[in-house]
Request: fold
Amino acid sequence: MANACAIVGGGLAGFVAHATLRKGGLEPAEIAVFGTDPDPAAVWRVRAASIRQVRMRSESDGHCAPASFPGLAVRAAFRRRSPVPLAQTLADRFHPTVAEFLEHVAELRVETGWDESFRRARVERVRGVEGGFEIDGRGVFPHVLLAPGHPGLAYPDELERERRAVHAYEPHDYADEVEVVGAGMAAATEWLNALAAGATVTSVRRREPERRPLNLPRELFTRRGLAAYHGAAPPERAAFIRRYGAPSYPAGRTWDEPLERAAREGRFRVAAAPNGAAQVICATGFKRGFRHDPLLARLVAEHGLPTVEDWIVLAPDSTVPALTDGDRTLALAGAPAQWSFPAADTLMGAKYAARRFLRRVQAWRTR
Ligand SMILES: Cc1cc2nc3c(=O)[nH]c(=O)nc-3n(C[C@H](O)[C@H](O)[C@H](O)COP(=O)(O)OP(=O)(O)OC[C@H]3O[C@@H](n4cnc5c(N)ncnc54)[C@H](O)[C@@H]3O)c2cc1C
Reply:
């Protein structure tokens, strides 16, 4: 059968969805992936390299294979001839290196036949029609998963056109004097990176950083916790997503000691506003919300979809209720799917959406 499914967005969330559909029995020819780069890690690779990320942030499930286990810990245990990665993964404390993660992505790309499904195209319009969705002029697909990623990097307004400014997720070296705007994980990483490169660093922030573990909130992993989230009133739900996304970085000496040392040496200080350093690094994350994404904004406008603040309202299984029934599925994955799963913007979250999408497709195939 041709064209049972389409995935719009060829990044890591689209890649996880493709691998999940393949494991569920679909052939590469039955899946069309529309994306801007055939390398599913292309966008992520640049961002991770820009902040000099060495180890994966996520817990043990933070890989792209469709099954959670064995994951990357078993491979690491074999390679390092050590049981330590296995013990770490049991406690959800295993963080593979970025190199190990990317190597696994490259292997999975070949194994799953990703390139056979991939079509290079930026999709401008997805429109509900009889029995499915028309994607630009490229055909009608009964099941479509939209995984367009974050809708761009966010800069503070006053720095958007500043020549001194660079975003933390764009490639950059460090000037001798650096101002870092932000108070989350990327900002904290950049303080340490710039100090290690010999720079003098000013942390520009309006409030004290929040310190919390990288691990996802535990309640998201329990059936009861997730049901409570799904049952909450829309304003509470929006507040939960906002709170989950607030900038933070983990507590611990690894972060504090280099900063305390640099502060004693006069190489690290805090300020409320940029003050003319040679370089301003904006560790200010991503633009937020469907309105910043032309494809999603058009989808909402043309189909009159319900939204709450920045989010398209989704069913608990990440599907768009008004456009999903036994004959067709429209689902979201990645950051735009936070209404169904607040951690949708992680690899774990990509699996959440992908597995539920597969269930819909399988139910349709066996009806
Ligand atoms: C530096 C960094 C480190 C991270 N580390 C981790 C980690 O360790 N563990 C973890 O779980 N998560 C991590 N994340 C979070 C998350 O896993 C990544 O952001 C991941 O790349 C999200 O995948 P995505 O497919 O949603 O978005 P992206 O990787 O941004 O991919 C989206 C793709 O869709 C394409 N696209 C967009 N619109 C269209 C369109 N209309 N038509 C066709 N194509 C389109 C884009 O061009 C892009 O190629 C990290 C994020 C960052 C920024």
